[in-house]
Design brief:
By secondary structure, the protein is an all-alpha fold. The protein has one domain. The protein is built from 22 helices and two strands. Helix 3 runs parallel beside helix 5 and helix 7 runs antiparallel to helix 19.
């Protein structure tokens, strides 16, 4: 009996310790002194490893951050989506700052998208019903058709690289999955308001950094990164001045993004009744337009003009739109013909609208006339990733390798043929048609503004495709695909919204 009592007494402290640990870790979730001690230990350990064993320390630190991000995506799908937004906008800057441009940035997008999708599954989201509605949309059907066409490109005898085919198909699959994930997350008007706030803040920060690069000059690591590659230096450094790229991979992508979001938030501001919110939006737009001009991307200038012109045509029955169109036209003419000639950014902006006298434009016309016979004689194209500099890497020796397309449409026509280009153009048309139908079919003033802004912003991308590959970059995850997802959710947004709009960005 005594032995049994002693044994029981010996177990009680252990059980108390287990209960205490469970309370500290599970109940309080380390939001206590134990969590603070653990965090301090991890911080000191990481600091020691990075100081003494840099590669190992950075590797463990990166793994810890990655694990924390994946856990966050699994616990909360919207959080994962916004993490993905931030990642797509800043990862190139982190890559050149800490990893000397050697980090494989695309892999993380795949992991995050799958983590968010898995989170939706384990949380019991109605994926089956959502997928059935998603897949029956004409836009999604065309996206799937284009994906299947890309898969069939493996049979193209002109293509030399299976690796290039795998990369292109993987990217197309990734964007399809991500579009579905966004479709499931942006499920009501309150989620749209939250997304708009995130998008506005991130775009303002990115634009502000681009302006700082102009006002302050590039930082040393950015300057070294530009001059580390001869091709990059030729694109970024023109006439003794750097084109600004902010946190993006190149000035063109930065300028195009700024043009699209400038159109988007300008239209939202014009439809905003609250003066404070309108001024906030227009203040952000001023920074975005300045950053766009500083990027030196002439295509972006045309994109901005085309988006605002489409909005004027879309809503010309409004008195406010006609007034805005008149003011904008006078401002535009003033910028083109004002007697100011010493500003290089202003001169480059003006050159966007006098292309017939521009030498680079004439060179592009000659190149397109030269390659046209090849395009017409190859209805299925020359294979994926066979043009531009990527063609020299993925398909060396190919007839198209190294040919600078300088146009997204021309690149598509050469790589997937005029048949594939036709499918892409039909898809673009259906996306715009869906946006226009959403605008005219909506009975809610808040959502009508979003539909108009989204339609005009996407239109700028398709106009920009004539001179650049504006669609298909990583930053599309932050803006291009969410706008399409909002269009696809039209029927849900038209239902009565139980959430009041008294404090949202789109206050009416």
């Amino acid at each position: 009996m005594a032995n049994r009592q002693n044994t029981g007494r010996g177990r009680r402290p252990a059980s108390r310790v287990q209960e205490g640990m469970g309370r500290l870790i599970l109940s309080n979730k380390l939001n206590n002194w134990a969590g603070a001690l653990i965090g301090l230990f991890i911080a000191v350990s990481m600091g020691f490893l990075i100081a003494r064993y840099t590669v190992l320390g950075l590797g463990l630190f990166g793994a810890s951050i990655g694990l924390a991000v994946i856990i966050a995506c699994l616990l909360n799908p919207p959080t994962g989506f916004y993490i993905n937004m931030v990642y797509s906008l800043v990862i190139y800057q982190i890559n050149r700052m800490f990893f000397h441009d050697e980090l494989q940035v695309g892999l993380a997008i795949d992991v995050l998208a799958l983590a968010i999708l898995f989170s939706l599954v384990i949380k019991g989201a109605s994926l089956k019903a959502g997928f059935n509605e998603f897949i029956h949309s004409p836009v999604v059907i065309l996206i799937v058709l284009n994906f299947l066409y890309g898969i069939l490109e493996i049979l193209n005898p002109e293509g030399h690289s299976a690796q290039a085919w795998v990369m292109a198909v993987r990217k197309a699959f990734e964007t399809s999955i991500f579009l579905f994930v966004i479709y499931m997350i942006l499920k009501d008007r309150e989620s749209i308001r939250t997304y708009l706030r995130w998008l506005f803040v991130l775009c303002v920060l990115v634009a502000l950094y681009g302006c700082i690069q102009q006002w302050h000059g590039l930082f040393d690591f950015e300057r070294d990164w530009v001059f580390a590659d001869d091709i990059r230096r030729g694109i970024f450094y023109i006439n003794g001045e750097f084109r600004k790229f902010s946190t993006f991979n190149d000035p063109a992508a930065f300028g195009e993004m700024m043009a699209a979001v400038s159109v988007f938030f300008t239209i939202l501001a014009l439809n905003q009744r609250d003066r404070r919110t309108r001024r906030t939006l227009l203040g952000g737009v001023v920074l975005m337009v300045l950053a766009m001009v500083y990027s030196g991307t002439r295509t972006a200038n045309v994109m901005l003009l085309s988006g605002l012109v489409l909005y004027a045509l879309l809503t010309f029955d409004r008195k406010g739109t006609r007034r805005f169109a008149l003011v904008f036209a006078l401002l535009f003419i003033g910028v083109l013909y004002a007697p100011i000639y010493g500003n290089s950014s202003l001169n480059r902006f003006r050159s966007s609208f006098v292309g017939a006298n521009d030498e680079s434009y004439n060179v592009r016309v000659i190149a397109r006339n030269y390659i046209r016979p090849y395009m017409l004689s190859h209805p299925f194209g020359g294979g994926l990733m066979t043009t531009n500099n990527i063609g020299l890497t993925m398909n060396p020796g190919h007839y198209l390798a190294g040919f600078q397309t300088d146009s997204g449409y021309l690149q598509l026509a050469l790589e997937i043929g005029w048949i594939g280009l036709t499918l892409i153009c039909i898809m673009f048309y259906m996306i715009l048609r869906t946006g226009v139908r959403c605008y005219f079919g909506s009975r809610n003033a808040e959502m009508k503004a979003v539909y108009a802004a989204g339609t005009c912003a996407l239109f700028t991308y398709y106009v920009g495709m004539f001179a650049q590959s504006t669609v298909g970059g990583m930053v599309d995850m932050a803006f291009y695909y969410p706008v399409i997802a909002i269009f696809l959710r039209f029927n849900y947004f038209e239902n009565p919204d139980p959430v009041p709009a008294s404090d949202g960005m789109m206050v009416k």
